[in-house]
Write a structure and sequence with these properties.
321 residues; mainly alpha; Na+/H+ antiporter like fold; 16 helices
Length: 321
């Protein structure tokens, strides 16, 4: 019983990364260097996943249309409805500006790199997760501004960013495709070194946590939130994430998806992308209101990483047993 109460090395690493980012956040040239290192680690992660997956698995992922529709529905229909549903609770605990930030994060696409990494760590359907997260990010470029205009602000400027599409393709899709092309030469070696893939998964997630939390601290997170407001915002974020995870898990189970598909649906359908959200916020909102509106996104991002990391470890250990 005592061992179950002690966090494992991976969870401790995530906690230490958040603690280090709070007291020693990366800034200036260090932050830029960390960004390059994180990008390289994520690129390596998707190269290895591309090399590990067979062509048949990737084709099966692209043809798994029921799973993809469920993830898109959870991301762009369920989340906005949940944001409206928790309005009484949110306005009781939060300021109207912070509640608008909650609504904004509900309109965003799913994360890509962490969704795939957590799905892989939990022994889920990685190929389907890659396709679902890709579809979510591409659809979100066009659908998120529409949802923001309808829910967050009337008459909002609606723009899509070609730069985000290019960066998305360069950092994530191209390494995955390169791994697929190299599989015929390195696939056997990759299959024999699965422990290395596990280290890359966990290491990339720790880097993402530290970099994201450093950015939040650097943008004045602790100056914008009093301890009471921060606690209330964390409570609302936890309620929102718990509802999303419970609904996606329940619906995917009732629709008869396999355990591997259920894992992919939960991790892809319950997460929101800060990497996509912050650039979109800069386009959609005035500079004066930008800071407060992205605070809920930054906090929700940290909470989802910690919760999904523990959940992925649980699925992985259960699969091993």
């Amino acid at each position: 019983m005592l061992r179950t109460l002690i966090p494992d090395a991976f969870t401790l690493g995530l906690m230490l990364a958040m603690l280090a980012a709070t007291f020693w956040p990366a800034s200036g040239s260090a932050a830029r260097a960390l960004g390059h290192v994180t990008s390289a680690a994520i690129g390596l992660l998707f190269f290895l996943h591309g090399a590990k997956l067979s062509r048949e698995a990737v084709k099966a992922g692209f043809t798994h249309w029921r799973l993809h529709l469920l993830v898109l529905g959870a991301t762009f229909v369920m989340f906005p409805l949940l944001g409206l549903l928790i309005r009484p609770l949110a306005l009781t605990l939060l300021t109207p500006e912070l509640y608008l930030g909650i609504l904004f994060l509900c309109t965003l696409p799913s994360t890509f790199q962490s969704s795939i990494a957590f799905t892989a760590l939990a022994r889920g359907n990685v190929a389907a997760a890659v396709c679902s997260a890709s579809a979510s990010n591409f659809v979100g470029i066009f659908l998120t501004p529409v949802l923001v205009g309808a829910l967050v602000m009337r008459g909002a400027a609606q723009h899509s960013s070609l730069d985000s599409i290019v960066a998305f393709a360069e950092q994530l899709l191209l390494p995955f495709i390169a791994g697929q092309l190299m599989r015929r030469w390195i696939g056997v070696w990759i299959d024999r070194h699965k422990a290395m893939l596990r280290l890359v998964d966990q290491g990339s997630i720790v880097l993402v946590v530290y970099a994201a939390f450093s950015e939040a601290v650097g943008q004045g997170l602790w100056q914008k939130l009093t301890p009471g407001a921060f606690f209330n915002l964390g409570l609302v974020s936890c309620v929102l994430l718990a509802l999303a995870m419970l609904i996606t898990a329940f619906v995917s189970r009732r629709l008869g998806f396999s355990k591997e598909d259920q894992i992919a649906i939960v991790f892809c359908g319950s997460k929101k992308s800060m990497a996509s959200g912050v650039p979109m916020a800069k386009v959609l909102f005035a500079t004066s209101s930008l800071g407060v509106l992205i605070v809920p996104l930054m906090l929700f991002h940290q909470i989802q990483l910690m919760v999904c990391a523990m959940l992925a470890q649980h699925f992985s250990q259960r699969a091993e047993r």
